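Figure 3 (text version): structure tokens given as input.
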């Protein structure tokens, strides 16, 4: 089996079969990662450039580790330490890198649509590692794998995304994926952080009362407040936000059932989630990090296969 697409630009472009294939391949790679020898030389002759125009720790390290586990040659490119600061365009930068015979580009960029732009102009396979406030497909895939491992499947499960929905590419990719895989999706948070159109346009429920949202769901995926993307004041203070929408142990204990807690990171402890919740036994945050490497190995492996077959 192979993917229906040459690139991984967003969940929006994937079929249900593509998602299932990536998740099942990731499960196989996860078994490899449990071994004493964690490498499989599947991408031994493949050269991958990690092109990060935005700061990232977890995603970049996760991709680097995935590439090394598969035996690929990797080049790490940080825009802040490059000719980009001298005014070089994205296309010029990538064309210069491609002249060194690169097969795949992992791109993180602050402009929504940057990976799609590159995919139209260059022959290499592109993986979107986060573009602006648009999508972050590998995060949604690793979230899906984590839910699947915990609950058995995604079909019919109730997932709430809590917090800064407006500025979250993680939220958008998760909504696309969960809808395609048959889950029920709700978004919860302050009205100022939830787009007005979202209910009709993206087929999700909307809830402004955090306790009602948690009482409804099987899984709460708690998102970071993205202060760096907000160009206006959307709530009075972080303290006020925590009191109204923060996930506390007291709030969890008041529910009639046990729910699964997730967070894509980095965590603002004491803002959207309290430390004793992030570290409690209902939390699968560390499993998400572990699954990130397996999911990215799967995406790289399948796209490299498509390239050689296509």
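Below: residues designed for each position.
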């Amino acid at each position: 089996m192979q993917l229906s697409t040459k690139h991984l630009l967003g969940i929006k472009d994937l079929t249900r079969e593509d998602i299932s294939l990536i998740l099942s391949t990731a499960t196989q790679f996860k078994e490899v990662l449990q071994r004493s020898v964690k490498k499989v030389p599947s991408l031994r002759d493949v050269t991958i450039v990690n092109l990060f125009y935005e700061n990232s720790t977890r995603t970049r390290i996760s991709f680097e580790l995935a590439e090394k586990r598969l035996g690929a040659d990797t080049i790490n490119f940080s825009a802040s330490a490059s000719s980009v600061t001298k005014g070089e365009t994205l296309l010029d930068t990538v064309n210069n890198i491609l002249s060194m015979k690169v097969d795949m580009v992992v791109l993180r960029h602050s402009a929504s649509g940057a990976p799609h732009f590159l995919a139209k102009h260059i022959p290499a396979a592109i993986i979107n590692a986060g573009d602006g406030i648009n999508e972050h497909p590998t995060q949604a895939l690793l979230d899906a794998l984590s839910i699947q491992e915990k609950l058995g499947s995604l079909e019919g499960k109730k997932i709430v995304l809590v917090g800064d929905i407006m500025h979250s590419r993680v939220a958008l990719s998760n909504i696309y994926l969960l809808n395609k895989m048959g889950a029920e999706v709700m978004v919860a948070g302050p009205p100022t952080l939830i787009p007005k159109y979202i209910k009709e346009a993206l087929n999700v429920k909307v809830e402004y009362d955090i306790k009602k949202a948690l009482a409804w769901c099987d899984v709460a995926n708690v998102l970071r407040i993205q202060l760096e993307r907000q160009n206006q004041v959307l709530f009075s203070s972080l303290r006020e936000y925590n009191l109204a929408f923060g996930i506390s142990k007291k709030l969890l204990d008041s529910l009639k059932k046990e729910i699964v807690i997730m967070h894509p990171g980095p965590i603002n402890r004491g803002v959207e989630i309290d430390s004793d919740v992030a570290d409690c036994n209902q939390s699968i945050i560390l499993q998400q990090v572990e699954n990130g490497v397996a999911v990215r190995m799967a995406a790289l492996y399948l796209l490299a296969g498509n390239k050689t077959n296509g």
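The beta strands are 47-52, 73-78, 104-109, 125-131, 158-162, 184-188, 205-207, 219-222, 260-262.
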